[in-house]
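The data are quoted verbatim for reference:
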Amino acid sequence: MGRLLDNARLSAAIAAARSAQIASRRLKRGGGSTVPGVVARRIDPGVLAKLSRRLPLGSAAITGTNGKTTTTRMVSKILQTAGIRAVNNSTGANLITGVTAALISDSTISGTLASQIGLFEVDEASVPKVAEEAELKILAVLNLFRDQLDRYGELAYTGKVIASAFGDLPQDGSVVLNADDPLVASLGRSAISPVYYGVDEPALDTGRLQHVADSKDCPVCGTALVYETVYMGHVGVYDCTNCDFGRPDLDYRASRVRFDGARGTDFHLDTPHGSLEIRIKLPGLYNVYNALAAATVASEAGVGLEEISRGLREFGGAFGRVERVEAGDREAFLLLIKNPVGFNEILRTFVTGADAKHVLIAINDNHADGRDVSWLWDVDFEMLAEARSEGITNGMRPFTVSGIRAGDMAVRLKYADLPVGDVIPDRKEAIQAALEATPPGETLYVLPTYTAMLEIRKTLSELGYTHPFWEDR
């Protein structure tokens, strides 16, 4: 009798969640990627645990400050290539309610799942709760950068929160860690058998730690780390001269990295199971890290190297992160920004080049963006001023600025001695005006925070240029 009541409660939760999703989309309140999880958990608090245990191959979770959505979608593409059906929260709803909603969308009313494996991006603060309920077999930590201090607090605390979940993984589970991030690498001391990945490309050394580097000191003894190579922020090859902490040996390695402009990147991948050349359609070193993490997770899940290579080669990008949208006879290139290190890499990879003549920056301070926008003053906009003075960005037009905090962004650009054009707080009006000001055949580079990106994508969708974000294509 108890089991029958339990199953009835599960079915009721799934049915109510489905109704909530339909209502959310019909009322144009969003894609229904979170509300169904909220509704279902109120009816049956055990819904996530019950459904996740019905996945034959268990679940994998990916967390960290930057790259969660892109990496998760890369893994999803690899699994698809390998013929493994995965359920994932592909819209980026990465709290426990979003993970729950994703499983519900994959199940029948009775709770039978269509997929073999769960694949979830998870907000850093939500990792312990998701690990407790979802029976994870793989947990990957990409990086930890200073991001939304009003929500997360200091990085060391965030690291401890994530590490507290390691004990919920099975004895044969995999904790996948970025060895090039000192704080992330140090979490391996709390894992039974950590798996490390990293980049081995001395030619990409920036020569110095940026002032926005967060984890410059040894996470074990507090001594300043000595860096042999700096890739971005505090990510690189490092060692502590005071204790036994240093960059761990790599299980998965990317080397011989070759950038092909905005068209993509090539690198050599070494794994415990062999080596091969990898091609991705995405530019930038940060996407090499995303691809390397995705390859590591997929390999730990049992996928072969050929399927990993093909999946990464066929992956086209995640919505709003590095997404090209054909807008009539122009193009909008969406590049999500959220913290100083990520913003700096976007500027270095795209905006300092001669092609980025038309730029729209949209800054919101909603809860999902982080209320504190003081991080804008840590972004190295001065590198653009230097590029302009050297003639590298010849032809760049004044920046169009939008968002709730458009004024703050305009002031920051002024202090960097960069030209500010139209300041249009309304995101819909701003994207339309910026596209109209972009000559036919050219590209508008759009750099938005998270909620501004959703608003801009919604406008592009309403204009018929792209699909709604919840429609994974």
